[in-house]
Structures are given as C-alpha cells and as structure tokens.
Structures
1.
Amino acid sequence: MRIEHVAIWVTDLEQSREFFTRYFNATTGERYENPTRQFVSYFLTFPDDGARLELMAKPGLDAAKAESIGWAHLAISLGSETAVDALALRLTNEGYRVVDGPRRTGDGYYEAVVLGPDEIRIEITV
C-alpha cells in the first residue's frame, strides 16, 4: 500500500498552485470544477517519487475557523542541506516567512519551516 495523495483547502487556488510549481517543481494536472458544489481543485505531482497533493477551494472558506487538530505541516525532502539552505534563503528573499531554521533538529533532521500561502506550514528537509 501507499498513500495516493493528500489534500489541503486553500483560499486562493492559483496562488497556491503557483507556489508549489515554482518552488517545488510540481507539475499541475487539469483544473477540476464542480459548479454545483462551487468546488475547484488541482492535483499537483512532485518529481522523483510521483507524490501528489490536491489543492482544493470553494467560496466561504475561513482560515480563522480552521480546526486546530489535524495536519500540522507538509514535509518536502530536497535531498541536501545545501538545497534546504538555498530554498530557505530564496523564499525569504521573495517575501515568504521562514519561521524556523534552517537547523538540525533533536531527532536528526536538517530542516527549515516556511509559511506558504494561507500560512500553510511547509517543512523543507533533507
């Protein structure tokens, strides 16, 4: 077995799609729209292992009302400490907030945590 995909709600579908394609080389599938439910989504596929992320949006989402139990972050492995450092610096220079690291954690990871669109926590790691 394997996880087929994970999905996250976003308030700006195009901004989130651009973030993951620009910084993590994800490729975008076709935009899906369900007018009856006012639902739109994209499936993004990441290079190397084919992991997929579904970005979903609909009118009326309110980040302030998001549940506090559930997903904590999305971790994306970049393959090297140098790549983590470079992307953390690039994200900072392009206006995203790196809230932790880059650093070595107590459990041995080398990582940085950045807030992406909608302040989704993205852990970039080796």
2.
Amino acid sequence: MQAINERTPALETVGGIRAKGFATRCVHAGVDQDDSYKSATTPIYPTSTFGWHGLGKPATYDYTRSGNPTRRALEENLAALDGGVDCRATSTGMSAVTAAMNLFEAGDHVIAGHDIYGGTYRLFADVLPKLGIDVSFVDLSDVGNIDAAKTDKTKGLWIETPSNPLLNILDVGKLVDAAKKHGLVTIADNTFLSPALFRPIEHGVDVVVHSATKYLNGHSDVVGGAVVCGSDEHAQRISYVVNAMGLAQSPFDSWLTLRGVKTLGPRVRQHCDNAMKVAMFLKEHGEVERVYYPGLGDHPGHDLAKTQFDGFGGMVSFDLKGGFEKAKRVMPSAELILLAESLGGIESLWEHPWSMSHVSMSEAARRTAGIGEGLVRLSVGIEDAGDLIADLDRALSA
C-alpha cells in the first residue's frame, strides 16, 4: 500500500506547474482564478448573474445556477484529484446521487449493493421506482450475483466500498469487468475513502460520486456533493442535468469545500492513523462483540483493501454487547465523541445506524444487510488518539 502523497499520477499542468503529487493537486488545482490581483486563494463570486457583452454575446458565465467561477475552481480541483475529465459540484451528497442516476431513464434497471448508505437506499427503493427506474439490491461480494440479477433492461451498476456502515470491501476491478461484459454504466460512491485513498476511475469505473460534506470538506461546516466523470459523454449529460434540475452548489459552499480540500492529504493520514489505534483498542474491549475495520488483519476484506486502496480509512464500526439498550446508555455519555449523523470531519462522531443513518431502510433490509441493533458507526477524527481511546473507555463503561 502506497502512502498518501507518494503516488505519481500522470503529469499534467496544474496551477501553472507540472503537478506530480496528490498534495500538490489538493493545494493548486483549480485555484488560480484571479487574473486581476493574483489572489493566493480563489475569490468568492456570490453574484447570481453576470453581464453579457451584447445580444448573442454572453460572457464566460451568465447565471450562477449554470456556472460560477468559484464553483468551477472546485470542480477543476476535484476532477484533477479523481482523475476524471470533468466534475460538477452539487448542493448535497444526495443531489450528486440524484444527478448520477439521471444517466438512466424510465424503463431502465440498475443493480446496487444491498449494504449501502440509507439515504441512497431510500432514493433507490422509494423514489426512483415511481419514475420508472427499478433497482435490485444484491450482495456484490459475489460478482456472480450480477449475472443472476441482470435483466434485458439492466443499464447500470452502483458500487459502494467500503460499504456504509459495515465496511465491506468489494473487488472493484472484478465488478467493472462484469459490468463491461453486460454493457453497464458503473457508478461508485467514494465518500468513505475520498480520492486521497481511492480513485475508482483508475479501476475502470465510469462515474464517481462524493458527499463532499464528508472528507472532501472535512470541517462539518458545509453540505455538498460532487459527480466526477471519466468520459466526455457522461460529463456532458451530468452538466446538463445539474443545470436543468438546479442541483448546483452555492458559491460560498464551493469556496468552503475548496478550502477544506487543500488539507485533505494530511487530514486523511491522521484519520487513518487514529482509526487503526481505535480499532485495535475496541477489538480488545470486553463490551465490544465485533469490530469492523479493514485495517485489522482478521477483516475478511483486509488483503483486498491493502492492494486496492492507499489506506484503510477513518471509519470504524463495531457491535456492542447488550445491543440497543447498551447503545442508549453508552453513546450519549462520551465527552469528546459527539452523538450525531455525518462523518469525515476533523472531530469524532458516532451514530447508531439502526435508528439513525439507516432507519429509512426497512427492518428486513437492515437485517439482510447485516445491520444489527447494537451496531455503532464511528467516524474517527484527528484528535489525539489517546484522548479518543480514553473517552471510548469511559463511555463503554457507562
């Protein structure tokens, strides 16, 4: 597994230099938007509209829903990080998912993993079928299930790995090969890892989505999303959809996200380091029944994660002995770790998937996915690991 910032992607000009390293791209890609004053940071253009040079002569931008210099800087940055041809920044992570699913139309069928984010599951199970797009949820750890689920109307494959919240690891290369065999469009939700640890387009995935609220922004002060495309065809369609449906991110939120991305590399390193220490502590704790973290040698996806990703991530899930009743006593009692939804911020958060992030799934669907009433999902922040472990020890003893 290669360390963050030591990778050497294809050379390209970013910010006037030939950028080799990931950290350089984080800091420089897309930011040079100020030709007048050479500002070191990208300015915020809060305007709703832009003047035209004359009838039939629009300027570079005409209306902020359609395009904005601040948002464009973020989009150029994220496209460079993910290795895509283009990106569109959206108002939320779910608007990014919505935009990506507009690559399909009424009558189409899509295959998705059975253990995915609850909000995505709700969109796929309750909203899209009313619009004529059907989704089948299958265990994608067995690539053969794609063949079993496919129909003559199947057009797409939705991939989420590590899965939310059980951190199951899927072999993306094998899934892409199976999808290509059937002519399916592949879309990967890369929120949990970010391009700092995984770039699905390098593995043949067509489209990548992010909840930029999470690791990309990293400071829990904005909501946003991103759709990165590996081909011009998909990029043009996503651009049209984001404009037509009004899904674009605001200039100020784009600026906040671009500011957060600059420190993505060092933040993710600290998240990964802390998560490993926390996972090892939880594995030995008497109140914990099972720990789900791909960095642990006994995780069933450990070897695959070691070769497929550039790190194991900052998310740790675990089953509490005592189930829901234990969780109700333990989780509000932490001093540092906030009981709250979301993830990927500099501060540590934990939540209860059964009653919070995945409550939109039916009980049967949660149980099929392996989500139990004692499961806790922990987003490990960048605090001192010793303080987090002490806080967990106190809370688990509540």
3.
Amino acid sequence: MDHVIRRKALLVPVLALLFSFATVGTAQASCAERPPLARAIADAEAVFIGTAVRLDWDGRVATFQVDEIWKGSVEGTAVVNGAGVGMAELETAKAEGQDLFTSVDRTYEQGALYFVVAYGRDAGALLDSGCSYTQTYVPSLAEFRPDSAHPPVGGGDAPGQPADADLDLVAVLAGAALLAGGLVLGVYLVRRRRRSGPAAV
C-alpha cells in the first residue's frame, strides 16, 4: 500500500511539470536538412534584402524596409513572421494568456541588414523560421543575386520619409523659385533706375 501511495505522490509533481510546459506552448520539430541555397531561393515564396526597422512578438516578427527584391511580390515595407507558426496561432495563444514558442523560432535584430528567404505567406506577413537561409547580409551572397533583382516599386523609403525622386523635385522647384525671384528683383531695380532719370549735375 505504501508503495502505491508513493507512486501517486510522485505523479503530482510530474503532472505539474507537464502542465507548466503546456502553458508555454507545444514545441515544434527541429529543422530538417536544408537544400542548397540556390534551390532554396528557387523554392521560396519571396527573397529580398532589407533592414529590420521594427520588432514585435519578442523579436520574432519584424517589419523590414526593403532595399532589393530577388524573388516574389514584395513591397517597400514587408512584415516577416519568424515564429514558426501563423499570426492567428500567436494571437490565439496571447488571448489565452500563453506564450507560444517553438524550437524553430527565429529572432531578428533591429537595425540589421538581412537576406530574407521566406517560405510562405500568411495573414499579410511573409513566413520565416530558424530553419531557413535568412541571415544578416554578407557580400558573399551576391553570387546568388539573380539578374532580375530590382528595388521595390516607389523606392523602399521608410514610412513618412520622402523618396529620392521627391527630394530632387523639391530641389528643382526651390531653385526655380529663387531664379524667378532674382529676375523679378532685377527687373524692378532696372525700372526704378530708369524712372529716377539721370543724376543732376
């Protein structure tokens, strides 16, 4: 009888430990062997180079200012979810008071320039994980740059910041305004001198 009681007593802390893991969220499987980078780029939903300008969800969801697009439909600003699960799952866990983490979570560093290889798209965000080739950009990656690589439409300037073309237009308009003002002032001075007539001797 004592032996049975001891077993039951041991079950209590074990069950408590399992319950504590359940409140953190179920861990996902580890990464499978990755294909060669060229193949991963070919299979990706989107590939781009950009700077992480905002972090959410403990750094696992990043908003990027896109500099160059290598593949896929990407705008000047792109949200990338590296949590290994969809945004709906993250929101559901948060609403239930849980912190959902997986073994394939990727975290980003704000201000760093990244080479992003996203494998899918969900709820307006590109999907990434710790298993992808996403990494901080290094010059050696340029050998994989496709001839079709291009900047995003409208430039990739940060929200609220004017594009370079806008700055050029402002400079041209300002120069034209100064030139017109100088001409008007010059005409005024010439007419004023003519009206005053020759100086008395």
